[in-house]
Design a protein that fits this description.
Number of strands: 11
Order of helices and strands: EEEHEEEEHHHEHEHEEHH
Structural class: alpha/beta
Helix content: 25-40%
Largest sheet: 6 strands, mixed
Radius of gyration: 18 Å
Shape: globular
Oligomer: single chain
Strand order of the largest sheet: 7-8-9-3-10-11
């Protein structure tokens, strides 16, 4: 049974600096969740620990009820967690074509070259950029680059799509189009979105649940609409006033 992710009393320290302190939260399959908070509160660190890019300093990470990370150990690598991530800087290789960037995201999956190419082609078509397959990232607009990063993620056929502030450099029209497309793709592909963002428009377009962090601790968690009725944190008060 697909239960999703769970953090149990997770902490993360870098030398003497405490980034996360006893963080416990759940991200069920099918429940699009926003991770909110001010800069430096630990939002991106939560994504990295969930994805297996970082190990927690303490506590446990579970996926579908099984422990996949524990103190200073990643027990299940990222490519076996059913997760794909789109980073803020997109992490596209400028010297590779669009197609090769998407293929690179499938490294370590065990697919043959032909199988990987088929998946890459399908993902490019889903994102509406198949005609751009031979171009390099520097020849694309910001919105097109976002679609390349999204296609690279979709080609791995993930269960979870992690978005770490990837829309921050886009104009409003392009951002709105992408948010609508991602929402539709998530429904079509049965993806569960976990979004890190400061933007109320992004959060409300994609997510129904939220976790609010402050100084590395969970301050609020639950259904977004309920939290915004009586917000206890400044960021949710700002979100409420935005609407």
């Amino acid at each position: 049974m697909n239960q999703g992710f769970e953090l149990r009393a997770v902490s993360k320290n870098y030398h003497e600096h405490v980034v996360l302190s006893e963080v416990s939260l759940t991200v069920p399959v099918g429940q699009h969740t926003a991770i909110l908070g001010t800069s430096g509160c630990g939002k991106s660190t939560v994504l990295r620990i969930l994805s297996g890019l970082d190990a927690p300093s303490g506590g446990e990470v579970l996926l579908n009820g099984a422990v996949i990370s524990q103190a200073n150990r990643v027990l299940v690598p990222p490519h076996r967690r059913g997760v794909a991530m789109v980073f803020q800087d997109l992490a596209l290789w400028p010297n590779l074509s669009v197609l090769d960037n998407v293929l690179l995201g499938q490294s370590g999956t065990g697919l043959t070259r032909r199988e990987a190419q088929v998946r890459a082609g399908e993902a490019l078509a889903l994102c509406g950029i198949e005609p751009l397959a031979k171009r390099q990232p520097g020849e694309l607009s910001g919105g097109q680059q976002q679609r390349v990063a999204l296609a690279r993620s979709l080609a791995t056929q993930p269960t979870f799509l992690f978005l770490d502030e990837p829309f921050s450099g886009l104009d409003l029209v392009t951002k709105t189009m992408l948010l609508n497309e991602i929402s539709l793709l998530a429904e079509q592909r049965q993806l569960t979105i976990v979004l890190v963002s400061h933007d109320p428009t992004e959060v409300t377009a994609l997510c129904r649940s939220a976790v609010v962090l402050d100084l590395g601790k969970v301050k609020e968690a639950g259904e977004l609409s309920v939290l915004m009725r009586q917000p206890r944190t400044e960021i949710l008060r700002v979100f409420r006033d935005h609407f």
